Amino acid sequence: MISLPKKDVLLYAAYTFTCLEDRAWSFFATIVFELLGAIILVVVLNNFSILFAVLSLTSKYHNPSSDHPILLYISVVLCAINRLFLNAEKSIITRDWVVTLNHKNALARQNAMLTGFDQLLNILAPVIVGTMITSHGIFCGLICFAIGSMISLTLKSTLLFLLYTSHSSLHNRNNKNYKALEHSMECEEEEPFLIPKTARKPSGVFHTYWKQSTFCAAFGMALFYKTVMGFDNLAVGYAKGASDLSIFTIGIVKSYGAIAGMAGVAFYALMEKRYGLVQAGSVGLVVQQVFAFLAVCTIWMPGSPVWEPISKGPSIFIFLMSIATSRFGLWCLDMAVTRAMQLHVPESERNTVFGFHMALCQTFSVPKEMLVIAFPEPSHFALYILSSYICVTLGQYFFYLYTKKHVE
C-alpha cells in the first residue's frame, strides 16, 4: 500500500481545491455568458470572484431582457480580482513551495502529480458542469458554485495553514539554486542574451527575469498564451456560436483535451527520467507543431465559418480535436520549461521571476482579446487561428534556442 508524507497530502489536497475552483467555474461561466448573449465578454470570463459574481449573474439571469449590462460588467471586474489571486495561489504552490519542500530529484515527480490533479479536474469539470446545466439549469448551478466556493475556501485555508506551520523551510528564504543540468554554468556564460556575471547588479523585475539562463525557454512559453489553440473560453465560445455542437459534446472534447494533457505529463515524466528535460520537451514541440498545423488547415475545410454562417461540416469539430490533441505536446513543453526554471532560478528570486513570467503570459493573451473585440464575428476566427499559429511556432523557436545552449 502506497503511503504519502503528510506534506504531500496537504499540498495535493489544497491544490486540488484550487484547481476545482478554476476548472469548473471557468467552463460554467462560459456557458452562462454565451446564453446571456455576452459573447465579447467571454474573452475575460476567467476572471471571476466566484461568490459575488454568482450574485450578479443570478440577478441578470432572472432579468435577461434588461437593457442595463451593469451586472455583467460587475462580474467581469470581480473576475479580474479573482483571477489575480487564483494565479498567485497556483504560482506559490506549484512554483515556490513545491521546490522548497522537495529535493531536486523529486521535482519531476511532484510537478507531474500536481499537473495531473489539475488535468484530472479539467477532465471531470466540463462533463459534470455540462450535465448539471442540462439536468438542473443555470440557477441551480449558480447556487452550487456559491456554496462550494465558501466550503473550498475554508478547507483550502486550513490545509495551507497546516502545511506552512509544520515545515520551517517555508518560513525563510535563501539564495539556494538547483543546477541539475550539466554544463549549465558554461551555457549561462555563453548565452548571448545575458549580461556577464561580473557585470550583474541588483536591478528591476524585468532585468531579474531577463538575466536567467532559462530566459529563452520561458519567453517562448509566454508566447503560447497569445493563442486560441489552448482550448480556452474563446475556442468554446467559437464552437458554441458558429456550429450546432451541443454543450455536452464540447465538454466531452474539452475533457479529451485534458486527457491528452495528462498523457503528455506522464510521457514527459518517463522521458525526462531517461533522456532529460531537453529531449522530452523537444518531443512535445514536434507533437504540438503537427496538430497546430492541422488546426490551421481547418480554415479551408467544409463547414468553416469563413465560408458558411453556421457550420454544418466537420471544420469546427476537427479544430477542437486538433487543439485538444496538441495539449499532449503543450504539456510536455510546459513541464520542461517549468522544471528548468525551478532548477536554475535562485530561491530568493523565484517569486519575482515566476510572478513576472505570469504577468508576461497574461500580457501576451491581451492581443487576441483585442482582436475579438475588433472582429467579433465567427467568420473572423480564421485571423485568430493564423496569428496563433505564428506565435506558437515562434515560441517553439525560442525553446529551440534554449536547447542549443543546454545540451545534456
Automatic annotation (TrEMBL):
It is a multi-pass membrane protein. The chain crosses the membrane at residues 25-58, 70-86, 123-147, 245-271, 283-303, 315-333, 354-375, 381-402. Keywords: Ion transport, Membrane, Transmembrane, Transmembrane helix, Transport. Its main location: membrane. GO terms for cellular component: membrane. May be involved in iron transport and iron homeostasis. This is Solute carrier family 40 member.
